[in-house]
Fold this sequence. Notes:
alpha+beta, BirA Bifunctional Protein, domain 2, Rossmann fold, single chain, globular
Amino acid sequence: MAKELKQLTKRADNYSQWYNDLVTKADLAEQAPVRGCMIIKPYGFAIWEKMKEQLDKMFKLKGVQNAYFPLLIPKSFLSREAEHVKGFAKECAVVTHYRLKASEDGNSVVVDPEAKLDEELIIRPTSETIIWNTYKNWIHSWRDLPIKCNQWCNVMRWEMRTRPFLRTSEFLWQEGHTAHATREEAEQMAQDMLHVYADFVENWMAVPVMQGVKSETERFAGAINTYTIEAMMQDGKALQSGTSHFLGQNFAKSFDVTYLTKDNKPEYVWATSWGVSTRLMGALIMTHSDDNGLVLPPKLAPIQVVIIPIYKNDEQKEQLNEKLQPVIEQLRQLNISVKFDDADNKRPGFKYADYELKGIPVRLVMGGRDLENNTIEIMRRDTLDKENVSFDGIVERVTNTLDDIQKNIFNKAIKFRDSHIFECDNYDEFKERVKDGGFFLCHWDGTAETEAKIKDDTQATIRCIPFAFEQTPGTDMVSGKPAKYRVIIARSY
Length: 493
């Protein structure tokens, strides 16, 4: 790598610092002047936009429509659902006044004490309360159901320990909120959206996930069931990458949302909510990237192919441009994003290192000798393999390489994950091994007491009761009590 870009901590030396370095040096994000917040830079936001675009398409195939609800929520709304307010109370930012005024010396501004709000407003940590207050006005009879709304927005949760993308006080996300006539329909919706998330994360992000249901302690505040997808990062820690909640009738009862059935009888509505956030950016970075920088799945890379001509003079530059322009056009016609970098303000070596750092999947380089020989150099970012190949057929070769990179990084990630899943029945052994990371399949007696002891002893938590494994009864390794199933236990972000 070019000297200017080389200061990237090695994963083996300090994985956490490697991650922070990469976020900054790959131009994804930087710390904001507001504590716990981040500035997402254009390159990082371009990746998020591609995620958002694809997810939005997938939601709409499920009959979901986009809407927008207020950022500010009356405090009284959060009080209506006891579990919900208990779950979010410690994370809420509160607006108390609506005006500033000049200080007496005229050099600053102060809060106007006369502008105190009659009721404090909460900057949304999530929108269930204000949305269900709205749904009360939208829902009257069975003919009004189902309602399937989603919004792309920001939320605020006052986090004490923050890390870009993974955990910030303000973050971007989508939150879907649906209303249904029957329990069965709502439960199905919650599970369907979990499968949508799993499909997206695996087939677009190339990140393998474990689907399952959360324990009572770990479920969303106010939910009856929380379904989750859990991914494993390269340090063996789990990252919750998306959740879908079956809310039952809890919010409908809190906000008195009923509908008249076909028999003209009033019934409470059944609900779901579901969301993924910019945390997916963290999953993307930590699953695939290496000591040289980002490794991006081609489907989500803002620039899929970079083409760099190497020329000695203006005449050669023109010849290369003429040769390469048809390739650029053909690739773009195939909806492949291409950057043609013929700028002369940076050395070729710097360009190579920069694009490597930013994870551009395919790099094409062509110089004067290549012009003579009708060849071009192709490099793939996932393996760093490069070779000189015939210029003829380069478009097909690039498309095949992009497809292969997408498959290769997924297969590499799933091989790593599967080799770090362990069955464990001995608590002493578990306590030692969990320090090194991995998913541990352990029998659990279903009690919150056992769950709390595991967390206190090891900092590991029950990630989910997984769907992927055939469940057999056994004995809890902590309590010695009978257990109905195995759960995945891991340290997490």
